[in-house]
Amino acid sequence: MTPTPLTFAPMLKPKVWGGIRLASYGKDLGAMKTVGESWELADLPDSIPEGRSVVAEGVLAGKTLHSLLQEDPTWIMGDAELSPEGGFPLLIKYLDARENLSMQVHPDEPWVATHPGDHLKTESWIVLDAEPGAMLYKGIRDGVTREAFAAAIADGTVVELVEAVPARVGECHDLPSGTCHALGAGILVAEIQTPSDTTFRVFDWGRTDRTLHVEQALACIAFEPAAAIEPPPVFERDGVRITQLSRTDHYVIDRIDTDATSTIHLAAGNAPEVLMMLAGRGELPPQTTLETGRTVLLPAALPGVEAALAPGASMLRVMLPGHD
């Protein structure tokens, strides 16, 4: 088969805290009133309902990403490794928080070492929209002990012990496993993460219909402030601006913005890349249109792709480490 860019049907997830802003990113919300997430690219285990992306177009339409990897992982992955569970090593989403998301943490390495069914989860939020005064929460305030945090969970004051950070459009927040965090009301983000759905909630803003996991969370939380955001490196040339948003052990994220009609060289290494079109338009050969809200997987067997971007385009480029 001739390698080609792959597009997938978005998987929309109704959430009590969700909104309707994902419609502005091309998502058909239908009759759904509170859509919190659009899973753009996912390959989670069978135990996760609707957790595997399905190819939307072309000769492979109807096949899942997981089945393609099972048949022959090499043409998609190249030299890159699958996840420890044998799936695609990234989960790509949009999140629309009309209300506050739960305060939560993902397992740390000591926990995972003794709980084989749970998995590490590093994630990054790229803020796309934020209402005035919107805050996100990440990391524990300096000096807060485990005992003080447990007491605050019990009396409902835990938010006071977590660092609150203003949500600024364009910023990227990296959240390694063990970071206590919550996305605040009024924020829309693109989320890049490792493919895990293991989450321990400690606080849910007065909601009573979802389980808390206080004991597990207290065992995993890093009782320290989150790393401060540093101004990212920015490179500009011929009307193209590349901002290096994130460099983690699991993925690399750049944002590409154009002020003029531009040709961008992609897929230079023997590994897959994921493109998230945030604004504007573009084209990928042979016949893939890039438009706001569209996510595209470039297989490793598709080297030297040139994307034609119109002025005013904005795109996230997600790569695996060692191949940027």
**CATH fold-level assignment of the largest domain:** Jelly Rolls
User: So what's the overall shape?
Assistant: globular
Oligomer: single chain
Average pLDDT rating? 93
Estimated helix fraction: 10-25%
Strand content: 35-45%
Query: In the CATH hierarchy, what is the architecture of the largest domain at level 2?
Result: Sandwich
Q: Main beta sheet, described?
A: 7 strands, antiparallel
Per CATH, the class of the largest domain reads Mainly Beta
Distance linking N and C termini: 26 Å
Number of strands: 22
Number of helices: 5
Low-confidence stretches: none
What does this structure look like?
Strand 18 (281-284) and strand 19 (288-291) form a beta hairpin. The strands form 5 sheets. The protein has a 7-stranded antiparallel β-sheet with strand order 1-20-17-22-15-14-13, with no helix packed on it. It has 2 domains: 6-220, Jelly Rolls (Sandwich), CATH 2.60.120.10; 234-319, Sandwich (Jelly Rolls). It is 10% helix and 36% strand. The chain has helices at residues 65-71, 74-77, 109-114, 146-155, 214-220, and strands at residues 6-7, 11-19, 35-41, 91-97, 103-105, 123-130, 135-140, 162-166, 172-175, 181-182, 187-193, 200-203, 234-237, 240-247, 252-258, 262-266, 273-279, 281-284, 288-291, 295-298, 305-309, 314-319. By secondary structure, the protein is mainly β.
